[in-house]
Amino acid sequence: FFMPVAAQSSLNIKDRLPKGIAPWWEGPSLLEYLDGMSALERKINAPFMMPINAKYRDLGTMVDGKIEAGVVKKGMSLVMMPRKQTVEVSAQYGEQEEEVPILQCGDQVRMRLKGVEEEDILPGFVLCSPKRLVHCVAEFEAQIRILDLKSILTSGFNCVLHVHSAIEEVTFAALLHKLQKGTNRKSKNPPTHAKRGDSIIARMQVIGGAGSVCVEKFEDYPQMGRFTLRDQGQTIAIGKITKLITNGSD
User: Fold this and answer.
1) Which of 18, 89, 127, 225 measures 20 to 30 Å from 237, CA to CA?
2) For residues 105 and 90, what is the distance between their CA atoms, to the nearest angstrom?
3) What dotted CATH number matches 49-128?
């Protein structure tokens, strides 16, 4: 998608292009196009969920992160996953230094928590509502696009998973399907390998020290279900979680 604009002369910024300047373009101006874009769908009415990006001490235990669902108020009781530890929000801040009474999905926040010590928190932990705990799984299925790989990829290939603020070592437990280019139709038989440019369905297993990771299916919580895979300092693949493998086979 290309749109002709000339910022210095303000062409096609607010008003549409005059005829004859770019005969191939009959579309809207830049501001028209931006005004017509659909607003992001925020999960404001969903139970609260926020991955923890960082932690520190400042008159108590502080954490920061971006709210992915719901709202939070001072005094609320939350559960920190995966340890299922109950904590209380004693203070909360947005982008300013002053406390704010309520924060919602999409906000970048800092919170002071009661009931937990700084050393008991790790990046990748998730604060959530007691009504709806985030899933904590050791295995999941995902649709993966191989971007850059020097060799072929087979079952048993190890790499590093980056999902929201969590970083865990994972392995390809099984290659389940190869997706046909253009149609995304699944292959009937599991592929023996995958290479650069391929799209596959695979079962991933967490093999890092934690042994599990807090995630959700992409269709339920996009930010909690999209990830990148890295190896030797390079991003080798991107993906989205399609199925969580739990005791109840979610």
Assistant:
1) 127
2) 19
3) 2.40.30.10
CATH top-level class of 136-245: mainly beta
- Check: CB of residue 55 under 8 Å from CB of residue 61: yes
Confidence (pTM): 0.76
Which one-letter DSSP state was computed for residue 86?
E
Asked if 165 contacts 122 with a C-beta cutoff of 8 angstroms, the reply is no
Give the three-class secondary structure for 185: coil
Domain ranges (residues) in the chain: 49-128, 136-245
Per-residue pLDDT tens, the chain, 250 aa: give them. 678 888 888 888 888 888 878 888 888 888 888 887 776 666 777 889 999 988 888 888 899 999 888 888 888 999 999 888 899 988 888 877 788 888 888 888 888 898 888 888 888 899 999 999 999 999 999 999 999 888 888 889 999 999 998 999 999 999 999 888 878 788 888 888 888 888 989 999 998 777 889 999 999 888 899 999 998 889 999 999 999 988 654 5
Cα angle value 106/109/110 (rounded, 5°): 165
